[in-house]
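## Example pair
The file below holds two records. Each record gives the amino-acid sequence first, followed by its structure token line.
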Amino acid sequence: MEMHIAEREKLSYIRDKTKQPAESDSGYEKWYAENQKVKRWLLMSMSPEIMRRYLSIPTAHEIWSALSKAFYDGSDEMQAFNLNHKAFTAKQNGKSLSEYYGELTQVFQELDHRDKVIMKDPDDIKAYCKSIERLRVHIFLARLDDVFEQVRGEILHKETIPDLEGCYALVRREVVRKSTLKGEYENSKASAMVAQHRSNQNWQGQNKTKNSKTADGIDKSSLKCTHCNQTGHIKSRCFELVGHLDWWDPNRAPRKN
């Protein structure tokens, strides 16, 4: 975080070199606005649980001092090692993109807070920040699930690689695109099934209607044979008189009353 503040030329607000003027001073409003800006950068770099502890602290310098006492120990190399190990071994592994990105950026923010590199030259600071950003883009892309192989390749083949947030935005756009396509496919599949069901119903209805009528269009249900006393045909077409067809099973024939 310190290097990001340095890049914006606001280090004096966390190092207490820009002193708070009196409220009656003409420069108070400008100082207050800049102090609030740096406070917001610091607070937004924290997890919600940690942020709650520092919301009421009035100045950026006091927040920075409190954080340094609570989390930073210059001799504690093990914490920096663990954070770097966490970053390099992180994987999406089926998690949502936002969850994976959130976990990774939280590690990066903690690493920023423990960064011991101190630079004075603005060009050196920008070069250092750019190098760190490039490394983090590679870490983020490398540990994405395989479904993002195509968009990962597209990003890495760009003439100018976006920063970490820009890469996240591009991958998220791919997530939205895939989700939209999946929804359209499911809808079209459901529509096709409904259409097929209706088609089958219409065919069955037409077939039933067709079989229930004679070639002349007479409803068979209105016919009754005076020989076998069954409905659906007349005496001149009664199988008992004219003979059964080869496929007819006499055991299935209804009995006479």
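Second record, same layout:
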Amino acid sequence: MEQRSHLLSFPSSCLLLLLLLLPFVSAGSVAAYKNYTVGDSFGWYDNTEKPNLDYQKWADSKNFSLGDFLIFNTNNNHSVVQTYNFTTYKLCDYDNALDNDTIEWSVSDPSNTATTGVTVAVPLLKEGTTYFFSGDYDGDQCKAGQHFKINVTHGRGLPESLKDPSEQAPAPNSPDVSGEDVTPDTIVPANFDNPKDVSDDNEDSGSITLYLNFLNVKLNVILFLVGFFFIF
């Protein structure tokens, strides 16, 4: 009888330990939104200025998701062009690009002899392949290594601060467009901020409520196991 009690207490103790550790495992499994500094400490320049830079190698080592930001540290002699159009990217030329698939986030001024530092924050608003390059000097900077592509996954989805208001409140009786290969417009909210490395406030409130309910259930299970342990 004493041996049976020992055998039962061992798995019960293990299960109790797992239940106590589960909140910490669950909490760490949800990734926060991130800021990625392009090129790290080297910044955003072409190979004539920084010969050893390989932006594609840098990008391939990262995992990008919706709501993340790319931070470009450069100067006013370099630009930041974001496009979803492979042809635009391949040609290093956005002159004939469409407004709904290409954005120039910073406009350089090659005629300006005074070089000043520039920091450009670009939010990732669409899933799939996204291309970046510098479009200055007729594409020469792009052809000299100042370009890369990334794949953006869904992750946590867009935070509320980056969502297009029209997506949050769709118009009633809107026509259903299907069967057409249409590139969606890229609409950036007027007052977007760099992401905090935490969840949205709304998401936090819901998560906390669910988490407390979950803890309450686990507490009942723990009390039951403790009682079961002492009985046997």
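Notes on the second record: Residues 31 and 156 are 8 Å apart (CA to CA). The first strand starts at residue 35 and ends at 37.
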